[in-house]
């Protein structure tokens, strides 16, 4: 019932300990890298926090940072353990420490994998957060004199220029809201009065976009206003014009940017996960191989190492029992031990 | 009479060699740093080379790269020398090389100083180069269908957006040239005809700027056209409007950017000069101390280290005399040939005389 038994002669044990020591230091560096990647992602998400409605997506970088810090500790102990492993006098003091150590290490390693899965799973949440955030940003574009919203215009302009996008879904979003402040509208002019009367809410709607939607790659100077009117501009066709303004919506641009970032980080974190896993597996083999040596006179005998003493299911139950008992979900064990203690003296 | 004489016991010599070994590896790192700095500066200058007329300013990064590579080599040699310095059998072979090494090290320090001076001195040339380059860029802005110039528009637009500037000196430069291509002008329209007739060259001039001059920090949507006409826009005053467009000219913006870049490298270069000088001085002390020790009967005894054997004046006179000697040696040969020929003749005469008298 033992899982993955392997024979370990003395030389192999020594090589395993040495290799594990090197590997654990590499894994420490990898843990620091994970922490840095988490910080990077968090910084990038916070830079655009004004166009995101909620911060659900921040759970990915937060998890990465926690896992990075934890893996620094895990790998530090791993290197200390394998330094002591070949010394029969110093190894036994780690005995009681190793069981909870493996439990905690497995938990954090699995958490690393979860972070990668979450970064893909939360794409939908990110998209809806951006949708709501951008909609508000575009709606409050004109409120440059309202405290708390006076920088919306600058943010949206710089966002559109940097990500080469226009509007939420596309540039037509600008046709549906009033993005010119009332302070700059001449209410005595007929044109303004007509436009305001033309819709229920009394908003000044134009078929035009802000200058930040303009595409520098266009061969002609930017056409911002009267976009739907072909006769307003010489040699211009609204349906076929592609280069004049950015056709991509900012939501799509930002989602692509963040998914690209998280894919790259995910690939790195996956390889770090494999490294961490191999450290834990090697440490387990070393521990079981050294345990068989304990107490013997000849420390150079061949021993067996294994991953799990019992099968997977039994081991899981063995680890979960203390946790469940602690949570008082399993009362049987308590009653059982109470019965034993009462019968023992008799 | 020696300059800056110091006593060196065996222990101190060993410490000096070890310290110099570390210092020379530090100097190798500094040389690599200087090289990378030169590469970075060169790349930044090349990125904007479409708006620069000539490449005089490239002397600064080129010199930095050259000095960086040379300094890596020289300091690596220094580390080898001080590795061999405590071994009496291997040190003498470096004797001849060291003189050349000193010359190279002094040359490197001088070149680094020259770089710092150049980066300030070439500011005027940079500004001239940018002035001409930007003027051409703005003039060819409309030529998006002319091969070789079709990316000028995009280059100028991205430049103005990135550096937050407008035009060459300021935004009025756009009023003086035609920046709208003829392909997009309706020549049957009255307005176009009027504008074209209003100037000698028949150009379509307007008091407007491209969209890339717009300042996102402005509270109102950007006003690009009819800028000088205060009545064309509601609540707009041409003279007092500050935030609508970028007020800075691109020449000013680019010059400030590049001078800032070169100024920030200044302290780094100066500290590298100091490190190089300290390597030079330590190497001289080590050489003289080890030479002195090898001349003693007991090599583990105390020796003296100095920078110059005699003082500055005497050394200068000695060097001058040696140099003149070398020059004289080149001249001596024809003179000695003539003298030798005369002597030979005299000897022949004398022997002939002797022969005749004998006979």
From TrEMBL, chain A:
GO terms for biological process: visual perception. Its main location: membrane. PROSITE patterns: RDS_ROM1. Keywords: Membrane, Transmembrane, Transmembrane helix. SUPFAM superfamilies: Tetraspanin. CDD domains: peripherin_like_LEL. It comes from the Eukaryota. It is found in: Membrane. GO terms for cellular component: plasma membrane. InterPro entries: Peripherin/rom-1, Peripherin/rom-1_CS, Peripherin_LEL, Tetraspanin/Peripherin, Tetraspanin_EC2_sf. The chain crosses the membrane at residues 59-79, 100-122, 265-286. It is a multi-pass membrane protein. It holds the Pfam family Tetraspanin. Belongs to the PRPH2/ROM1 family. This is Retinal outer segment membrane protein 1a. It comes from Xiphophorus couchianus (Monterrey platyfish). The lineage of its organism: Eukaryota, Metazoa, Chordata, Craniata, Vertebrata.
UniProtKB/TrEMBL annotation, chain B:
Belongs to the PRPH2/ROM1 family. GO terms for cellular component: plasma membrane. Its main location: membrane. It is found in: Membrane. Pfam families: Tetraspanin. The chain crosses the membrane at residues 20-40, 60-78, 99-122. PROSITE patterns: RDS_ROM1. GO terms for biological process: visual perception. Residues 338-359 are annotated as: Disordered. SUPFAM superfamilies: Tetraspanin (SSF48652). Residues 349-359 have a biased composition (Low complexity). Keywords: Membrane, Transmembrane, Transmembrane helix. This is Retinal outer segment membrane protein 1b. It is a multi-pass membrane protein.
């Amino acid at each position: 019932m033992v899982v993955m038994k392997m024979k370990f002669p003395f030389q192999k044990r020594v090589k395993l300990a040495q290799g594990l020591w090197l590997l654990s230091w590499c894994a420490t560096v990898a843990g620091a890298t994970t922490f840095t990647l988490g910080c990077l992602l968090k910084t990038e998400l916070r830079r655009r926090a004004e166009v995101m409605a909620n911060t659900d997506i921040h759970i990915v970088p937060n998890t990465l940072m926690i896992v990075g810090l934890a893996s620094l500790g895990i790998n530090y102990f791993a290197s200390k353990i394998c330094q002591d492993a070949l010394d029969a006098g110093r190894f036994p003091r780690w005995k009681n420490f190793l069981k909870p150590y493996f439990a905690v290490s497995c938990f954090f390693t699995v958490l690393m994998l979860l972070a990668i899965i979450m970064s893909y799973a939360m794409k939908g949440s990110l998209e809806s957060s951006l949708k709501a955030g951008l909609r508000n940003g575009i709606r409050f574009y004109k409120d440059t004199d309202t405290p708390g919203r006076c920088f919306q215009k600058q943010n949206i302009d710089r966002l559109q220029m940097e990500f080469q996008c226009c509007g939420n879904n596309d540039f037509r979003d600008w046709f549906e809201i009033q993005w010119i402040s009332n302070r700059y509208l001449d209410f005595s002019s007929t044109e303004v009065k007509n436009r305001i009367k033309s819709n229920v809410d009394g908003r000044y709607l134009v078929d035009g976009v802000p200058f930040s939607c303009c595409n520098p790659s266009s061969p002609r100077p930017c056409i911002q206003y009267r976009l739907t009117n072909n006769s307003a501009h010489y040699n211009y066709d609204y349906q076929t014009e592609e280069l004049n303004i950015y056709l991509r919506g900012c939501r799509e641009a930002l989602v692509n940017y963040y998914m690209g970032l998280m894919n790259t980080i995910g690939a790195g974190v996956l390889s770090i996960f494999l490294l961490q896993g191999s450290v834990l597996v090697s440490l387990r083999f070393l521990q079981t191989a050294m345990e068989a040596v304990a107490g013997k006179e000849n420390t150079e005998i061949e021993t067996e190492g294994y991953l799990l003493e019992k099968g997977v299911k039994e081991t899981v139950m063995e680890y979960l029992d203390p946790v469940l008992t602690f949570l008082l979900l399993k009362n049987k064990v308590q009653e059982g031990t109470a019965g034993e203690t009462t019968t023992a003296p008799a | 009479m020696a300059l800056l004489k110091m006593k060196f016991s065996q222990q101190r010599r060993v410490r000096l060699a070890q310290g110099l070994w570390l210092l020379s590896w530090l100097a190798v790192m500094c040389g690599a740093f200087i090289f990378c700095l030169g590469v970075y500066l060169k790349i930044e200058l090349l990125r904007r080379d479409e708006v620069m007329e000539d490449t005089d300013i490239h002397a600064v990064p080129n010199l930095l790269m050259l000095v960086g590579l040379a300094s890596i080599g020289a300091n690596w040699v220094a580390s080898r020398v001080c590795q061999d310095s405590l071994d009496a059998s291997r040190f003498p072979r470096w004797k001849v090389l060291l003189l050349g090494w000193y010359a190279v090290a002094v040359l490197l320090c001088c070149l680094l100083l020259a770089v710092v001076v150049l980066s300030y001195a070439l500011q005027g040339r940079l500004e001239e180069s940018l002035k001409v380059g930007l003027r051409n860029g703005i003039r060819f802005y409309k030529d998006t269908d002319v091969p070789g110039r079709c990316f000028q528009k995009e280059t100028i637009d991205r430049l103005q957006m990135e550096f937050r500037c407008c035009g060459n000196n300021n935004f009025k430069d756009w009023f003086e040239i035609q920046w709208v291509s003829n392909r997009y002008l309706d020549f049957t329209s009255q307005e176009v005809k009027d504008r074209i007739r209003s100037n000698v060259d028949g150009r379509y001039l307007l008091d407007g700027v491209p969209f890339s001059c717009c300042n996102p920090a402005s509270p109102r949507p950007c006003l690009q056209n009819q800028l000088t006409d205060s009545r064309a826009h509601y609540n707009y005053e041409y003279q007092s409007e500050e935030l609508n467009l970028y007020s800075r000219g691109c020449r000013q913006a680019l010059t400030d950017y590049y001078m800032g870049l070169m100024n920030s490298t200044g302290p780094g270069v100066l500290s590298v000069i100091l490190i190089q000088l300290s390597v030079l001085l330590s190497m001289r002390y080590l050489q003289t101390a080890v030479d002195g020790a090898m001349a003693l009967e007991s090599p583990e005894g105390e020796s003296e280290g100095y920078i110059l054997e005699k003082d500055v004046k005497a050394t200068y006179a000695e060097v001058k005399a040696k140099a003149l000697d070398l020059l004289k040696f080149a001249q001596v040969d024809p003179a000695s040939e003539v003298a030798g020929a005369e002597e030979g003749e005299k000897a022949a005469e004398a022997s002939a005389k002797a022969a005749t008298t004998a006979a």
